[in-house]
Amino acid sequence: MLSRRSFFEKILRNPEARELLMNSLAVGEADSAIGLDRASEHVEDPVLSRKIYRHYAEEKKHARLFGRRLEALGVEAKPLPPELDYEGLVRRFEMGTPQERYDDPRPFDQADLIRFLVGCKAGEERACAEMHGLIQDFKAVGIDAETIAVLEEIYGDEIRHVSYATEELNRIAAKGPADREEVVTALRRGRRAEARAHRIVSRTFLARLMTLAGVPGWIRFFAGIAIDVQCTVRFLFPGGLDQPLVADAMPVPPPR
Ligand SMILES: [Fe+2]
Ligand SMILES: [Fe+2]
Predict the structure, then answer these.
(1) pLDDT, position 253
(2) What are the residue boundaries of the structural domains of the chain, listed by start?
(3) 173-220, pLDDT tens digit by residue?
(4) pLDDT digits (tens, 9 = 90+) for 5-60
(5) Which CATH number applies to 4-236: 2.40.30.10, 3.40.50.80, 2.60.40.10, 1.10.620.20?
(6) How far is the CA of 236 from the centre of ligand 1 (A)?
(7) Of 91, 146, 170, 217, which is most buried with the most CB atoms under 10 A?
(8) For the residues 80-100, what does the mean pLDDT come to?
(9) d(CA 219, ligand 1 centre) in Å
């Protein structure tokens, strides 16, 4: 049976598979910034608005960092096919702020703000888990110290992103039982949408990586089942509102 470590080694040593991995990361980060700058314009609280704009700037930075790693492989970032378009899929499953709301100039009310923050939280929780897994995989193979440094920097940022979204949701939930109920219901819906989108992208992405790395069909089959099980568990048990991992995670202006 193929261990996770030897599978990842095959990926990193295969130029096409490695390019697919780094390109997906670069494009995924650039896509995750979309809408954040516009969201910041819809938020009346000036401090929260600046935090969201800082979030936007940091996602752009992540895209640049992965873009440079891609350049080091001698290739440029290129668009992803629709079946790997994670942001498109989460929107299809109604996670986060819809485009029409950004086009509407009225400031966000509480329901809009909860929807936006839940979209951030569910997406960033996934980003944290992914960065953590990738760091372990790169370290296990023991190559590409520059990419490991980039992943660690981004992982630290993603933890702060999930933390400030969680902090803001807790602030709204603390207003009263009805507000808490509104936040928790929206959070469960958001995490469920995320699990559905993640299942589709992960299945497609892993199948392509495994094909490029020459992994036998029966292993690809069981890897797909493992993704289904993982995402189904997340869909069935979306959890509740937790506490931020980091306190005051997005000070504005950012400390030097
Ligand atoms: Fe990011
Ligand atoms: Fe992030």
Answers:
(1) 85
(2) 4-236
(3) 999 999 999 999 999 999 999 999 999 999 999 999 999 988 889 989
(4) 888 888 888 999 999 999 999 999 999 999 999 999 999 999 999 999 999 999 99
(5) 1.10.620.20
(6) 26
(7) 91
(8) 93
(9) 30
Going by the DSSP 8-state scheme, the letter that residue 74 receives in this structure is T
- The identity of residue 109, as a single letter, is D
Around ion ligand 2, residues with a beta carbon closer than 5 Å are 124, 158, 161
